[in-house]
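Predict the holo structure. Ligand: flavin-adenine dinucleotide.
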Amino acid sequence: MNTQIDSSFTPDALVVGGGIAGLQSALDLADQGLKVLVVERQASIGGHMIALSKVFPTLDCASCITTPKMSAAAHHENITILTSTEVEAIESAGGVHHVKLLQKPTYVNFDKCIGCRLCEYACDTEYPDPFEEGLGAVKAIAVPFTNAIPQKAVLNAEHCSTCGTCARVCPTDAIEFDQQPRRLTIATDAVIVASGFKLNSITVKPQYNAQRSQDIISPLTLERLLAPHGPYGRVLRPSDGKIPGSIAFVQCAGSRDESIGVPYCSRVCCMYSIKQAMLLSGALPLADITIYYMDIRAFGKGYEQFFQNAKAMGINFVRGKVARIDPLDGGDLSLHVENTEEAENPIAERRHDLVVLAQGMIPGWNPAAATPVACAADGFVATTSLTAPTATVAPGIFVAGTAAGPKDIVDTIAEAGAAAMQASQYLFQKRAEALVG
Ligand SMILES: Cc1cc2nc3c(=O)[nH]c(=O)nc-3n(C[C@H](O)[C@H](O)[C@H](O)COP(=O)(O)OP(=O)(O)OC[C@H]3O[C@@H](n4cnc5c(N)ncnc54)[C@H](O)[C@@H]3O)c2cc1C
């Protein structure tokens, strides 16, 4: 893994994003002997998947699947990875893509840092840990998380007290307080956009009052609470550390809703909520768990059985839309629900002490603003036809994973492989034409 490159570096292909889609595409290209540059804006590769607890429908440990892929990419002789680096724009001319990158300062020289974490242990400034969705604390200089790749410390300038302790304890003189943002342009023949998704804001629906209670949480927060190596090591309510006794999942809390500009289905929310409910019932056997849903979309292989297993485990499914959530004095949350299966009294008020909102998936990046790639009306990368699901309108630029629309890991991996195949076919054809012409 090389982190010091300049514009003379010309990879065969550049992958935007080091999530599971980007890593799979990079590995498939690199295994064919092609040189690949993966550019990731976060301090570690792994994307959303490395932060998940377990995955549906197998309930395998997410990091046990993701870490080997991250490691394989990091150690592949044909793959170079740049972290803390953002793809800002792509200019294409004469079949060559000029990819403009912004490398953010980490204030640590990665060639010197040995990942010993002495700086982290010595640092006495902490801030809410973004990897733990703000629940735990992380030092101002730290390796981003336990299985982060690269295992290099990164200094957060916003939270640094500039006391200089990290520089004094570093055994390899790796701390560089004078690092500046660096811009560079990389020329390449093919690009795979694997810039993924983000969740829409937890406060996008004001009637759910998430801004008024710490116990109305995001599904990513629950993933961390459920992770064995999560912030508390067990599931506790964020507001007061109490073990929750009654948990509600509110489906379609940020999707299938024209009023918030997300009319489409985010596809994975039904399945991840069912998964989280099953994991919760294992972690908190006495808890009462209810999923409020409009309809359950269990579309994949083995998914319907997974849903049936959850019902058999005693998870309550209530078919009805949650209209409003009110935080009450004393910490409970009051849900106003229309239960469509209740003919006599469909409108009900139910109380829970932890609520998880199934927020909608929205694009992680908008390439249409600064690249030849076009986006569809939903903001995700537009593809050219049903029979070429990884081709974009720009020749030589392909798309993989949730950058093209909401999807689960199985479909993301399949699409990443397809994008790599299309990109390599494009590259080998280009080489053959150059030899002939
Ligand atoms: C709460 C939750 C639970 C889930 N559970 C499951 C599950 O159990 N099973 C399952 O199959 N699926 C699950 N999913 C879906 C799964 O997370 C996705 O299918 C998968 O992570 C998509 O991977 P990706 O690589 O497409 O995107 P991401 O993981 O979002 O990766 C994209 C990467 O690109 C980077 N990036 C973006 N823009 C730029 C840029 N301009 N320059 C550089 N880097 C950039 C981002 O930082 C990110 O690291 C879940 C989703 C959620 C929200």
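Residues 16-22, 39-42, 47-49, 52, 55-56, 86-87, 194-197, 199, 219-220, 223, 268, 272, 275, 364-365, 401-402, 407-410, 412 surround flavin-adenine dinucleotide (CB under 6 Å). The first strand starts at residue 13 and ends at 16.
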